[in-house]
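Worked example 3 (structure in, sequence out).
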């Protein structure tokens, strides 16, 4: 295996589908003890069974602080948390700001942004007690560059990036590292499928972006490989970074 991941306890929020599930499979294959978190018990149990390697599903609504605290305590009791990956992908499609209601904005902030902050705060005491830990958040390049239709989404992604950097600075004395992976268009995920099928505006926007990915389209597996590296000893000096994986769509 050679990744330094074997034996790690890895908690993956949003691990029952898309990027989170790809991470769960990759970490399990590298010998980690994987716990995936989601709201749907049926989908989560099926995902855990498909991963194998004794993967476990933990139910939690990550938009609810009490649920997050309970779930983190349960995961910690099962052998600690060496790495926490947050891949709580937003389900909202890009839309021009003047077409969004104030309630749309509220939902974006409470469902797509807040869970990252709750999870980071909830896991901090566990990792401080261990004197080690890695937090890997999956955000988006929308947090780095302004794009039509992503004013609200981008604001949330930028907040995730800045929160992770703050966590990195506060946690480094306790051996805690925190980094962000920021993809653009990720092929084969439920959100991208919706973007291309349902959203006329979004489909046009991302069809243009796809043409710029001259290194090839980004897949969930690409992000899982980077997450694996960031959780391992080869990344022991890397913290507070927001790393784009986008096939060449843009450069930051």
């Amino acid at each position: 295996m050679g990744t330094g991941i074997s034996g790690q306890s890895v908690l993956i929020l949003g691990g029952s589908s898309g990027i989170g599930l790809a991470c769960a499979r990759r970490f399990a294959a590298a010998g980690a003890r994987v716990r995936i978190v989601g709201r749907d018990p049926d989908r989560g149990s099926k995902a855990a069974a498909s991963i194998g390697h004794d993967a476990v599903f933990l139910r939690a609504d990550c938009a609810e602080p009490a649920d997050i605290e309970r779930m983190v305590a349960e995961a910690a009791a099962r052998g600690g948390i060496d790495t926490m990956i947050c891949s709580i992908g937003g389900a909202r499609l890009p839309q021009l700001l003047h077409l969004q209601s104030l309630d749309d904005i509220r939902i974006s902030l409470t469902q797509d942004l807040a869970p990252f902050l709750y999870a980071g705060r909830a896991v901090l005491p566990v990792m401080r007690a261990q004197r080690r830990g890695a937090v890997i958040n999956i955000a988006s390049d929308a947090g780095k560059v302004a794009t039509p239709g992503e004013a609200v989404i981008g604001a949330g992604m930028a907040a995730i990036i800045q929160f992770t950097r703050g966590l990195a600075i506060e946690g480094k004395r306790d051996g805690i590292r925190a980094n962000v992976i920021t993809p653009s268009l990720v092929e084969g995920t439920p959100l991208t499928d919706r973007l291309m099928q349902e959203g006329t505006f979004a489909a046009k926007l991302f069809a243009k972006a796809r043409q710029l990915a001259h290194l090839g389209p980004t897949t969930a597996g690409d992000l899982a490989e980077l997450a694996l590296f960031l959780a391992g000893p080869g990344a022991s000096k890397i913290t507070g970074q927001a790393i784009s994986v986008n096939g060449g769509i843009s450069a930051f």
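Notes: Helices lie at 18-29, 41-51, 65-77, 102-130, 151-171, 190-197, 200-211, 220-231. The mean pLDDT is 90.
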